[in-house]
Write a structure and sequence with these properties.
The complex is a heterodimer of chains A (479) and B (1001).
Chain A: E1 12-13, H1 21-32, H2 54-60, E2 65-68, H3 76-82, H4 91-111, H5 123-148, H6 169-186, H7 202-215, H8 219-230, E3 254-258, H9 272-276, E4 285-288, H10 290-295, H11 302-306, E5 307-308, E6 331-332, E7 349-353, H12 354-367, H13 371-389, H14 403-417, H15 424-430, H16 434-438, H17 446-451, H18 468-474
Antiparallel strand pairs in A: 2-4, 3-7, 5-6
Helix pairs in contact in A: 1-4, 1-5, 4-5, 5-6, 5-7, 6-7, 7-8, 8-12, 12-13, 12-14, 13-14
Chain B: E1 3-10, E2 21-24, E3 30-32, E4 38-43, E5 49-53, E6 60-63, E7 72-73, H1 78-81, E8 84-87, E9 90-93, E10 101-105, H2 106-111, H3 117-120, E11 128-131, E12 142-145, E13 157-160, E14 163-165, E15 177-183, H4 186-189, E16 200-205, E17 214-226, H5 235-248, H6 267-271, E18 275-287, E19 291-303, E20 310-325, E21 328-343, H7 359-365, H8 401-407, E22 410-427, E23 431-450, E24 466-489, E25 493-516, H9 520-524, E26 538-560, E27 564-575, E28 584-595, E29 610-622, E30 633-635, E31 642-645, E32 654-667, E33 672-689, E34 703-724, E35 727-744, E36 751-755, E37 758-762, E38 770-773, E39 776-779, H10 783-788, E40 806-808, E41 823-826, E42 832-842, E43 845-855, E44 858-860, H11 864-867, H12 879-884, E45 914-916, E46 919-930, H13 933-937, E47 943-951, E48 955-957, E49 990-1000
Parallel strand pairs in B: 1-7, 13-16
Antiparallel strand pairs in B: 1-4, 2-3, 2-5, 5-6, 8-9, 10-15, 11-12, 13-14, 15-16, 17-18, 17-49, 18-19, 19-20, 20-21, 21-22, 22-23, 23-24, 24-25, 25-26, 26-27, 27-28, 28-29, 29-32, 30-31, 32-33, 33-34, 34-35, 35-42, 36-37, 37-38, 38-41, 39-40, 42-43, 43-46, 44-45, 46-47, 46-48, 47-49
Classes of the chains: A mainly alpha (479), B mainly beta (1001).
């Protein structure tokens, strides 16, 4: 009979996993993994794998960028996203679903373990990790609810395991709130060790909760959470571009980002570096539009930190050639770095930074008609760049007393401050102006359509379709 | 004074018998008949007696009586004709067999000219479906016996000389095969228990015959060319279609390139070539009463019809047995092979991890306007060279198939040993104790270099260039002991039993290494493509897996006066693949037979020498469900810990219950032989993977015993033999029907799998993996048609459609057309498989025709979704689309208009791509000529035959894709049988003309 006891070899199984502290460490790191833009060993675009698609929906679908790439046919599904011809089989839709649920399941795997009696795992460390798991689960659900509305709620340690039922939007937000409440309790305000600088903090938990209130237009709740965020001592970096070139990764402005390191084995760098680099150097996706460039005020120093354009230097110091980007003459600069190979970028990808929070604050106050407070928050963001320009006439202080004018100024500020950070499309939708900005009559000319942004947005596009694969496999009701 | 006597020796059908020994009784004077049966013998006087002996015939004595001409008709020896059939762990007289077994002669396999054993089996036996998934060299055929009885691995168990082997049938030369027995029903196969649910194939290799020392040499040379390549549009037509699409879309843009100044490359022509196939076999065999031997060597060198695809095999075989004592026989069978495959992506688009992009798919996608070589650099073109066109975007970004073939191929080396040693002891007259140990050992290496493709759109830095090396070593060991007893009591009761034990253990070890950091020299020089030469990062991985099976089995058989037959089997298998509680499974079977022809009331019906009715019932298991389905596995790679597959400790056996009723008949002196079987296979507790939904993360979901499948059908086999006037006919027809149904699924949940635009569904009550998609109803011809297509409340059903777009059907009648309207649109399961294999001999000529056909299945022509449509990505277009597309009211009701925008999503998964997969193929025709014996004998050659053959000479089919013979594409390879029938562009089969020579010494 012993001859028949053949157990898996070279693999951990229930019998020997989660028996030592390092397993918990590796398991909590697994929860962060879907946030990163690391190369994952294969290019399964069809199955929504390879990389997260935050930038496809946040930026390509907005008026800030067009798809780009190697031609009409390169990532045809992305073109369908861009032109709001979105079918449930679109691989970007599946990708967004897949990456977020991958994170949720990794969090669930961790939260189902009992680490209270594991040698070498202190109670403090274990609790902090649980806090990270709760935070990240809330983060992933917040992505899902914004993109899809109600989704299956899986939280096995709370008995929630049915993947065939879509919970209501309220239930998803309820889960997010309760997870974040746990996270706020369990997480530290900051980390001192280099190995941990990217981990979730209590401030990040408050910020994420604030963001969900913002999206639900619960302005006062949003402000209350922002007040909690500010207790952590976040501040704007003096140099705007340091957020996007690696200099400010451990600085005071980043509230939550996914960590990338260049030159490690196995690679922990960002593939986005190659995705955004011009055709030939990389693949030339996410091409900034003229419309975005025009949005920047004269001499706004943020423009040069946001796009590569004529007269600029490419990452390696050579002259940037606008011909590299035949559609508009621009390429994305944020998050780009000079590395070899080019798909091993070392710059962290920001999900929440303090300037974003300040603009939520401005927006919430403005919505509550608290215009001085709104102007003050807005001014903090503008002042940083004005100071950088060392020209006091650049980016003059916004002084309007008209609520709508102030809201418009905040919207403008968000667009230029946060371009290519994955927010624009969601902002347009939640502001209710997607139809106005993106619903232009479909352009009959495919070549123009390819250069143009946002063809034919309709209210039915406010949510993405549930991926066909999941509808087919689980019987989920479609949006 | 001598006397010469001569004449012709014939069999009872009248045809001449070659090789009959004609001897003068009591003397050494003897001769043998020639090919036409004639003989001439000089004897001392005309008063002696001739003795004529020939295997399979009764020995006859004829007094000469001073006659100069004596023609003799030999009578077949019924006893000798009653062949011995190989059954599980033994042999049986054919007349006593009660299970459904198809026997195939080795000569018939060799006749097919197939390089590998699995392909050679196509069309040879009723109930056995053999499909070549691609025409790439080295491809093994997929074998399914009596339908698909599981959602998991449906491969039959292959046992070669008692050794269970794991795949790799292309390492076995068809020329070394003596016979193959296919065990189809439960009675025949339940003695293999847990591995028998998909049928068992017993392969017996050749052995030497006492007193018949022979040298046989065969050599052949063939030339192959691809079949079924479609016609594509010319550059001018391509541009015309694009401008028509712009016009249809109301766009002002035009493609203003002048076609006459652009290339017009026939990419299929550029990609394919004629290829050579060489085969050599040399064998030595013979022996005496004590020792028998068969030793052979073989070599195959097969080029593919696409450059850089090839298959080579070198094999050695030695089979020796010796009766060292009166009571003891020992022996060995050993097959050593080395084979080498250079592989290209043969199907699919390379989207699945680890798969290569399909060369043929890209040859289909690349427009004619793109030249093979870049005019400036001389390298293969990649993206259309910008200098040639006003706007290269119009010509797409399909990869250059020749560049893929040259720079993205993979080399596989495999070393394999399959063999056994055995000893058999006979005692107390009726008992035989046999013990044998078998080994199947394989060492496989794979290497792929990913370097810079000159002229490619992507410039790789040295760090991006990598070499992957993969080594895979496994062995299966079996140790088997059997005790046989047979005795006839009172000339009436045949009693026999077999008892046995078997232990099988399998272990596989994977080791892979990769390195990057190769320089430009490596790109062009294979001599530098080694791990050592890389300067960059190194990666390595390795793991081991194993399984084991401990078994006890027994069979009892009883026959009364050879009329009434009863056999019962039982096997108990304990498998490591299940947790301890579910480890052991029991697999019983019983069968009965009735030899009607031996009843007294049949004695006067002389035209029916043999008639037997058979019936059987039994249960079989399937353990091919992964090695550790009970355990949840975690990975720690890439610095994170995560579950990679979820286990279910309650997993138990899959069980197939099979009932079989059959009839064997031999009519008119054996001229007609008929075998008919009806089978009913019910498979239960089939392991079904819970839906691999991404909602549950990326870990592989657990298996549960949750599905039932049903397969019912008929096997017919009819053979006709006749010899008249020098002609000998031997024609065999096989016909199989299988009706496949999904009886139930876990929690009745259906599953849909997709590849490209093609989808299949698992749903209760339907055949396995039916095609799933939208139903179409012609095209909108006018704007009024579009506006008039409304639901009950008057809302337009397809508001975005334009004339020339496809009208989809609101199947569920809910007033809108969406995913819920997808329905069953086709069935990949054939209703009928048939083959006809006929040999006609006349004098020294022999002609063999072999037809194989499939009827009633459908294929989802996924690649037509791109090339038989208009694709915005600038991919090539089939001429069929050009000629039959809609371009104005009434121009077509099936082929939609050209459009870039495709606002109607014409190309969604629909019945438009479902085509009949029925075909009839002349698989092989062989014409042979045996040189006259007298001529050859003078130079010491006992037999010499030359032949010419043509494979795949013609195919009758309505299928519009390249090849109706296909299986699953590489994108869906993980799903095995469930994804078959979706054509993403396959390496097609070849037409091969072969010339060969066979010599015997």
């Amino acid at each position: 009979q012993d001859e028949l006891d053949k157990l898996p070899q070279g693999k951990l199984t229930e019998g020997n996993v989660f028996t030592q502290a390092s397993d918990f460490q590796l398991a909590i790191d697994a929860v962060y993994l879907p946030l990163t833009n690391r190369f994952r060993g294969n290019w399964e675009w069809e199955n929504g794998a390879s990389i997260p698609r935050e930038w496809v929906i946040g930026d390509v679908m907005s008026d800030d960028a067009v798809k780009g790439g190697g031609g009409l046919g390169d990532q045809e599904d992305m073109r369908r996203m861009e032109t709001f011809n979105i079918f449930p089989e679109n691989n970007n839709v599946l990708g967004i679903w897949r990456f977020n649920y991958k994170g949720i399941n990794a969090a669930n795997t961790f939260l189902q373990q009992d680490g209270s009696n594991v040698a070498g795992l202190s109670a403090d460390l274990y609790n902090r990790m649980r806090g990270e798991a709760y935070f990240l689960r809330a983060f992933y659900y917040s992505r899902l609810v914004v993109n899809f509305g109600g989704v299956p709620l899986i939280a096995p340690e709370q008995g929630k395991t049915d993947n065939t039922v879509r919970a209501s939007v309220q239930e998803v937000y309820g889960q997010i709130e309760s997870d974040l409440a746990q996270a706020m309790q369990l997480l530290p305000m900051n980390y001192t060790e280099d190995a941990n600088y990217h981990r979730a903090t209590s401030g990040a938990a408050h910020a994420l909760l604030a963001k969900t209130y913002l999206y639900r237009q619960r302005w006062q709740d949003c402000l209350n959470e922002i007040a909690e965020v500010q207790k952590s001592g976040y501040m704007l970096l003096p140099e705007f571009e340091d957020n996007f070139n690696g200099e400010g990764e451990k600085g005071k402005e980043i509230i939550f980002a996914s960590r990338h390191e260049a030159g490690l084995v196995p690679s922990q760098g960002a593939i986005l570096n190659a995705v955004f680099a011009p055709q030939g150097k990389g693949w030339g996706f996410l091409i900034p539009t003229q419309d975005l460039v025009d949005e920047f005020e004269t001499n706004d120093p943020r423009l040069k930190a946001t796009v590569f354009m004529s007269g600029d230097k490419w990452v390696d110091g050579s002259d940037y050639n606008p011909a590299w980007s035949p559609l508009t003459g621009y390429n994305v600069k944020k998050f780009m770095s000079n590395v070899t190979p080019i798909d091993d970028g070392g710059v962290d990808y920001i999900y929440i930074r303090y300037a974003d929070v300040l603009l939520w604050k401005a927006e919430s106050h403005a919505q509550l008609n608290q215009l001085p407070e709104a102007r003050a928050a807005l001014e903090q963001v503008r002042a940083r760049s004005r100071n950088q320009a060392s020209d006091p006439s650049v980016l003059p202080e916004v002084t309007t007393n008209n609520q709508q004018e102030l809201l418009d100024a905040i919207r403008h500020e968000r667009r230029v401050e946060l371009a290519f950070e994955g927010h624009r499309y969601f902002d347009l939708v939640r502001w209710g102006i997607a139809d106005e900005v993106l619903a232009k009559a479909p352009d009959a000319d495919p070549l123009k359509g390819y250069k143009d942004y946002g063809n034919g947005w309709q209210p039915s596009n406010a949510l993405l379709p549930i991926p066909r694969r999941e509808v087919d496999l689980l019987g989920l009701p479609q949006n | 004074q001598t006397f010469t006597v001569g004449g012709v020796v014939r069999d009872d059908t009248g045809s001449g018998l070659a090789g009959v020994t004609v001897q003068l009784k009591g003397a050494t004077t003897a001769t043998a008949t020639n090919a036409d049966g004639s003989y001439s013998l000089t004897v001392p006087s005309g008063s002696g007696t001739l003795v004529l002996t020939y295997i399979g015939f009764q020995t006859q004595e004829v007094a000469i009586n001073e006659r100069a001409t004596i023609n003799v008709t030999l009578v077949t020896d019924q006893q000798a004709l009653d062949e011995v059939v190989v059954v599980g762990y033994g042999t049986q007289q054919k007349s006593q067999v009660t299970g459904a077994i198809s026997s195939i002669k080795g000569a018939s396999l060799a006749q097919t000219q197939a390089v590998d054993l699995s392909t050679a089996l196509q069309g040879q036996a009723a109930g056995v479906n053999v499909t070549s998934p691609t025409g790439a060299p080295g491809t093994e055929a997929v074998i399914r016996i009596r339908g698909i009885g599981t959602l998991n691995n449906s491969n039959p168990l292959f046992i070669i000389d008692g050794v269970p082997v794991t795949g790799g049938l292309n390492t076995i030369s068809p020329n070394d095969i003596e016979s193959i027995e296919v065990l189809k029903d439960a009675a025949a196969s339940s003695i293999y228990g847990a591995r028998a649910a998909n049928g068992v194939v017993l392969v017996t290799t050749k052995s030497g015959k006492a007193g018949k020392n022979e040298i046989a040499l065969e050599a052949s040379y063939g030339v192959a060319s691809p079949i079924g390549l479609p016609d594509m549009v010319s550059t001018a037509e391509f541009i015309e279609l694009q401008n028509e699409a712009f016009e249809n879309d109301g766009a002002t843009t035009r493609n203003n390139d002048n076609a006459s100044t652009l290339p017009n490359t026939d990419w299929l022509d550029a990609t394919f070539r004629t290829a050579a196939i060489q085969r050599y076999n040399l064998s030595f065999s013979g022996g005496n009463d004590v020792t028998r031997y068969y030793i052979s060597g073989n070599m195959v060198n097969q080029e593919g019809t696409i450059q850089n695809s090839e298959f080579k095999r070198y094999g050695l075989r030695s089979n020796v047995s010796s009766s060292v004592k009166k009571w003891l026989t020992v022996g060995e069978n050993l097959n050593l092979t080395y084979d080498y495959t250079k592989a290209l992506g043969a199907s699919g688009d390379g989207g699945r991890p680890g798969s290569l992009p399909g060369v043929v798919r890209y040859a289909l996608l690349r427009p004619n306007a793109v030249p093979v070589y870049d005019p400036a650099s001389g390298f293969y073109t990649d993206l259309p060279p910008a200098s040639l066109y006003q706007n290269p975007i119009f010509y797409g970004d399909a990869k250059n198939p020749l560049a893929i073939a040259d720079y993205r191929n993979r080399a596989l080396d495999r070393y394999r040993a399959v063999g056994n040693i055995y000893a058999e002891v006979g005692f107390l007259n009726d008992f035989r104790l046999r013990t044998y140990a078998g080994l199947d050992f394989s060492l496989q290496e794979q290497q792929q270099y990913n370097g810079q493709i000159p002229g490619d759109r992507t410039t790789l830095s040295d760090k991006d260039k990598s070499l992957d090396k993969f080594r895979h070593r496994y062995y299966t060991l079996n140790w088997t002991n059997t005790l046989n007893y047979n005795h006839n009591f009172n000339e009436a009761h045949d009693v026999g039993f077999t008892l046995g034990t078997e232990y099988v253990t399998f272990k596989v070890d994977y080791l892979s290494a990769a390195r990057n950091g190769y320089d430009n020299r490596t790109d062009v020089n294979p001599d530098l493509q080694y791990l050592d030469f890389g300067l960059g990062q190194q990666f390595s991985s390795g793991v081991q897996e194993e399984w084991a099976l401990m078994s006890y089995f027994g069979r009892v058989s009883y026959a009364f006066k050879e009329k009434y037959l009863l056999t019962a089997n039982l096997r108990a298998d304990a498998s490591s693949r299940f947790s301890e509680n579910n480890r052991t499974g029991y697999f019983p079977s019983v069968s009965v037979g009735w030899n009607l022809a031996r009843e007294n009331f049949m004695q006067n019906v002389t035209w029916v020498p043999d008639l037997k009715l058979r019936a059987s019932w039994g249960e079989l298991g399937n353990q091919e469900i992964g090695l550790y389905p009970f355990a949840t596995l975690y990975s720690t790679s890439n610095g994170v810990l995560q579950p990679i597959s979820l286990g279910n400790p309650d997993v138990k056996w899959e069980t197939t219950e099979q009932t079989n009723v059959g009839l064997d008949a031999s009519l008119f002196q054996g001229r007609i032989n008929l075998s008919v079987d009806y089978f009913d296979k019910q498979s239960r507790d089939i392991l079904i993977q819970l839906p691999a939904s991404y909602t549950n993360g990326d870990a592989t979901p657990p298996y549960v015993n949750g599905a039932k499948l049903s397969n019912k059908g008929w096997d017919f086999s009819l053979n006709y033999r006749q010899s008249t006037g020098g002609f000998t006919w031997d024609v065999t027809g096989n016909l199989t029907t299988v009706k496949n149904r999904v009886v139930s699924l876990y929690q009745s949940k259906e599953q849909i799998l997709s590849s490209g635009s093609g989808s299949v569904i698992l749903r209760e009550g339907l055949p396995l993996s039916a095609f799933y998609g939208y139903k179409t109803n012609g095209l909108f011809q006018t704007a009024e048609d579009v506006q008039g297509y409304v639901n009950a409340t008057g809302e337009q059903l397809q508001p975005n459609a334009e004339p020339g777009d496809i009208r989809f059907v609101d199947v569920n009648n809910d007033g809108k057309i969406d995913d819920a309207d997808r329905t069953i649109i086709g069935d990949p399961n054939p209703e009928l498989l048939y083959s006809l294999n006929g040999t006609l001999s006349f004098k020294n000529f022999d002609l063999n025709l072999f037809f194989n056909g499939v009827y009633g299945n459908e294929i989802y022509n996924e690649v037509d979704n791109i090339i038989n449509s208009f694709d915005a990505r600038g991919f090539n277009v089939k001429r069929e689309f050009y000629e039959e597309r809609w371009n104005g009211e009434g121009t077509s009701n099936s082929m939609p208009r050209a459009t870039y925008q495709d606002p109607n999503n014409n190309r969604r998964s629909s019945d438009r791509y479902v085509e009949s997969g029925s075909y009839l193929r002349l698989k092989n025709v062989v014409l042979g000529y045996t040189l006259p014996g007298t001529l050859m004998q003078s130079v010491g050659i006992s037999r010499a035959r030359v032949y010419a053959s043509a494979q795949n000479l013609f195919t009758i089919t309505d299928y519009g894709g390249m090849d109706p013979e296909l299986y699953t594409n590489e994108n869906l390879a993980n799903y095995g049988d469930l994804g078959r029938g979706i054509d993403m562009g396959t390496y097609p089969q070849s037409r091969i003309f072969t010339f060969g020579l066979q010599l015997g010494f």
